Amino acid sequence: MRMPIVDCYSPQAAQQLRQACMEVGFFYLRGHGVPRPLQQAVYREMHRFFHLPPAEKAKATADKNMRGWAPLYEETLDPENQSKGDTKEAYHVCRDSLPDEAHLPLHDTTNVFPDPAVLPTFHPITTAYFNAMSHVGLHVAHLFAAAAGSPGAFDAPGMFDRCVLPPRISFDSLHTLDMIPFHFPMAVLRMLRYNAEPSDLAAGVIACGAHSDFGLLTLLSTDEEPGLQIDYRGDWVDVPRVENAFIVNVGDLAERWTNGLFRSTRHRVVNTTGRERYSIPFFFEPNFDCTVACLPSCVSASNPAKYSPITAGTNLLNIYKTIHANYPTDHDSVALK
Ligand SMILES: O=C(O)CCC(=O)C(=O)O
Ligand SMILES: [Fe+2]
Question: Which family does it belong to (predicted)?
Fold first, then answer.
């Protein structure tokens, strides 16, 4: 198979995205404009954090909303086929909540950051990256609506309008403007370190268990190490890193929104090298209380809606409970597809 390419700001982008999401559910996103030095700076911060002494890392342990550090094996993405948790540790950064959101699940805590006396640039650099990625995420979400035959659909009130957009990000202004946390709909910056443990699929040991992503869009940056595989029509296919491109996939909400037209493709990470690996998935999602219902452009008399409406927040909460060892289980739940 050939991995499709989408040129982020080209006039063909929506058409390219449509083709890519119908056929593969994954594509390389070029021309996204996120400065390379900013990406490299995030990798440096991750490396510093993950190699701190365990007691120092523990001070930034994830809170009940998974913001902060989640240790090795904490997450199990494919519980049926794994004998232990994913061989990775994670650090999650979200945006700060607006005052009228503080009552919502996942919004009722603030970010957890390492002690600034130990890692002074972790907070500003991850915030700058979060802002830059949110810009790209919002643009790709608009491409997505156009690609699904409903241009402008995501401009409707209640969908992506928890937004206060910062100006475009420049790496040079990092220490002034960009460390201010701006507001977008929901998004999670997920920094991952896979340890050097080789995967053993027969024994149920895997770097990142097979799963589809739960939300709308994932924009992934990886280091040079291989490992990511996607399920393309029943075969596991390697997806190598490509210079200056993000690996982007659409998740379960995208499949629901398009009535199954776009694929939420299963993927996994297998450690075949015995070396550590770093990656940075960025999940870009609609408002917490946005109702995700099949777009009218994807429904017809002969192709009725296959999915019932769900709110984006309920969808996330349902999944968190099943995969995170440390996630509390006292939230309401709603049946998934
Ligand atoms: O590390 C990777 O390449 C992929 C991670 C992933 O699929 C995820 O966090 O959802
Ligand atoms: Fe994933």
Answer: Belongs to the iron/ascorbate-dependent oxidoreductase family.
Instruction: Determine whether the shortest distance from the Cβ of 207 to ligand 1 is under 6 A.
Output: no
Query: Which among 87, 279, 284, 322 is the best mutation to test ligand 1's pocket, defined by most ligand atoms within 8 Å of the CB?
Result: 279
- Among all chains, which residue has been given the structure tokens 């950064």? 93
- CA 312 from centroid of its chain's CA atoms: 14
Residue nearest to atom 9 of ligand 1 (CA): 281
Least confident of 154-163, 165-174, 194-203: 165-174
Of the candidate ranges 107-111, 146-150, 152-156, 295-299, the one whose mean pLDDT is the lowest: 107-111
Q: How far apart are CA 102 and CA 109, in angstroms?
A: 8
Q: How far is the C-alpha of 73 from the C-alpha of 294, rounded, in Å?
A: 36
Cα 283 to ligand 1 centroid, rounded to whole Å: 10
How far away, in angstroms, is 77 Cα from ligand 1 center? 10
Predicted confidence (pLDDT) at residue 27 exceeds the cutoff of 70: yes
Which of 20-29, 74-83, 319-328 shows the lowest per-residue confidence on average (mean pLDDT)?
319-328
- Alpha carbons 48 and 118: distance in angstroms, whole number: 10
Q: How far is the CA of 236 from the centre of ligand 1 (A)?
A: 15
What is the reported pTM? Answer: 0.92
Q: Is 34 in the pocket of ligand 1 (CB under 6 A)?
A: no
Q: What is the ipTM of this complex?
A: 0.99
Ligand 2 center to residue 248 CA distance, Å? 10
Which residue segments constitute the domains of the chain, with CATH numbers given?
5-164+182-323 (2.60.120.330)
